[in-house]
Amino acid sequence: MSQSTTQSGFQAERIDTSSKWYDLFQKGVELGTWNVEKLFDEVGFEEDRAIWESLEPGERKQIRYLLSGFLDGEFAVGEDASHHLQRIAGAPCFDDNEEMEMYMTMFTLTEHKHTQFLDVYMHEVMGEQDVFADLNPKRGGARIPIVQATGLGEIFDRQGQLTARAAHSRDPVDIAKALTVYHMIVEGLLARGGFYSINKLSRNAPLPLLNHGFKFISTDEGRHMTHGVEALSELIAKERAGEPEFQGVSQAIVDVLYENVPAVADFGYMFTDAVDDPLEINFNDLLMRVGHLIDGQFNEALDLDMDHRTVVGRVADRHQECLERDIDDAVRTYRDLYQRKRGVEAAADGGR
Ligand SMILES: [Fe+2]
Ligand SMILES: [Fe+2]
């Protein structure tokens, strides 16, 4: 039987071209196939290198920390998308949604391109810094010391554990937990908080290639968020319709948010107070922004009852804990540890 008509008017036999995931797939094909190497060729590295050289050491440190969080984060989401999300999209609770599985291929492609952009950009513009990449072949290298030292690495570990478990069990509640940490927290709060910070710092450090790349990345992430909200909404709707195996989905989403939202403070610490905020990102502005995002994602988009003040309070508490810890010392410890494992001497300028 032919499926119904889409915006473009095409119909198909096996694919539902009126599906919202078909639409996302098609948008991904149109918009998500920007070519990272072509962007490097077209915009070039020269201007970014010149601006990078002109920055103060503290300003460079702030940008390097911010991009380090992105690099390790993009790597982790790319791995978990290809290993686990693809299998989750094929779970029975999504009703053999072929179009969602099609969309996931575009999703995974874009995550790997984000890693590609960041890894090459950091190497070409900021110089050789990452001496930790060969330590853990399974994950493509040890985490960058600042990511490990702030505790941000834990959210990526949690994402890996929850997506792996959900891919294995294909249980709706496990899937709700996995998608919450992946789409709502890592993509929805951390990455979007990061985009906000990149925008803000570009007033003081206008790096044209970096800004170009991040425009593409944030557009891609917008589609990823739409997918996450749609998938979670479907699970919530089935719970509200009384389907037995979906009971507990909403509570699981709330629990995962409260448990993991302090990661926002770990990420924020890396580029605000930790480095005296020379590029004027301002942690309190970031918190406000995150508060609005939480309202939009959980209360409005998912129609859950989330108190954003409670959440922001948890982030602020974690931020205070970070301020009371000696993160610089922890960075040195991780760096020394990694370098001992590789059997190399300590880098002169401290690396990332
Ligand atoms: Fe990404
Ligand atoms: Fe993403």
Automatic annotation (TrEMBL):
UniProt-listed Pfam families: Ribonuc_red_sm
Top-rank taxon: Archaea
Sequence intervals crossing the membrane: none
GO MF annotation terms: oxidoreductase activity
Any one of the GO BP annotations: deoxyribonucleotide biosynthetic process
Gene3D superfamilies assigned to the protein according to its UniProt record, in alphabetical order: Ribonucleotide Reductase, subunit A (1.10.620.20)
Signal peptide residues on this chain, from the entry's feature table: none
Stated name of the protein: Uncharacterized protein
